[in-house]
């Protein structure tokens, strides 16, 4: 025996299923994972600059996704075939066509404007003479070299695939990075800092930011550069300014 549920009851059941599913998904995640949306907070000056852009981009995507889902489901539940009559045919709806052309344009324009603003802030750098700290990062197959120009002798730390180098940074103080490559294209990437810049042969790139959290963070090359690309790893160690000065002094002695 087949029992046909009334339309109103069917809608109620579908609504309860959607509510219970969303509740289950939300409660299965910690507040820490939900609040950051995959974006580390307070780790670097780059994160502080682009954090709001990251969150609002997710909110805009969620709003567009929900509205699109509603528009897709609306005819499924409310405009199903009820009889054999041929439905009314319409060829044009000018307001709707203007809306679905203008709204995406406005969304893209707003996101582009805020992206350009944050990008200009991130890419603005001091000159080597005026930067608080100056470190030269050189990529090579398949490791990294870090030259600390803060020290008069400009000592260089050279790593190997077997022994990854350590990049030491002072907490809360901006560092100007000069990025180069000895051979092929590489990518200087610290995932926690949400920024990467290419290391290219015969090209000098610059990026400047401050580490805002003590600790150790992984770094790597994110451009496929050859056989041992996966071994192009390094470690970022953020220390207090006093510890950084002591480290630089120790490099002078060495």
Helix content: 40-55%
Q: Count the DSSP helices.
A: 5
CATH topology of the largest domain: Immunoglobulin-like
Please, what is the average pLDDT? 83
Give keywords.
10 strands, 2 domains, 5 helices, 254 residues, five-stranded mixed sheet, Immunoglobulin-like, 23% strand, alpha+beta
Concise structural overview:
With 254 residues, the protein is α+β, with helices and mostly antiparallel strands. It is 41% helix and 23% strand. It folds into two domains: 37-76 and 94-124; 134-253, Cupredoxins -  blue copper proteins (Immunoglobulin-like, Sandwich).
How does this model look, in words?
The strands form 2 sheets. Strands 3-2-1-5-8 form a 5-stranded mixed beta sheet, with no helix packed on it. The chain has 254 residues and is an alpha+beta fold. The chain folds into 2 domains: 71 residues; 120 residues, Immunoglobulin-like (Sandwich). It is elongated and about 90 Å long.
């Amino acid at each position: 025996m087949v029992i046909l549920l009334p339309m109103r009851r069917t809608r109620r059941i579908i609504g309860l299923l959607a509510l219970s599913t969303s509740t289950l998904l939300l409660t299965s995640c910690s507040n820490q994972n939900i609040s950051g949306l995959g974006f580390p907070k307070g780790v670097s000056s780059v994160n502080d600059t682009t954090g709001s852009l990251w969150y609002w981009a997710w909110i805009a995507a969620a709003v567009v996704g929900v509205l699109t889902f509603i528009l897709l489901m609306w005819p499924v539940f409310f405009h199903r075939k009820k009889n054999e009559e041929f439905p009314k045919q319409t060829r044009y709806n000018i307001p709707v066509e203007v809306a679905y052309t203008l709204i995406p344009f406005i969304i893209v324009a707003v996101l582009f404007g805020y992206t350009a603003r944050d990008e200009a802030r991130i890419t603005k750098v001091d000159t080597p003479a005026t930067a608080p700290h100056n470190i030269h990062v050189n990529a090579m197959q398949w490791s990294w070299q870090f030259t600390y120009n803060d020290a008069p002798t400009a000592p260089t730390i050279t790593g190997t695939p077997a022994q990854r180098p350590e990049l030491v940074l002072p907490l809360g103080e901006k560092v100007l990075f000069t990025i180069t490559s000895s051979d092929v294209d590489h990518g200087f990437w610290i995932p926690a800092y949400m920024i990467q810049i290419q290391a290219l042969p015969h090209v000098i790139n610059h990026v400047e930011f401050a580490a805002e959290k003590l600790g150790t963070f992984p770094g790597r090359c994110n451009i496929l550069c050859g056989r041992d690309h996966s071994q192009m790893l390094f470690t970022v160690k953020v220390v207090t300014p006093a510890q950084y000065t002591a480290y630089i002094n120790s490099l002078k002695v060495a």
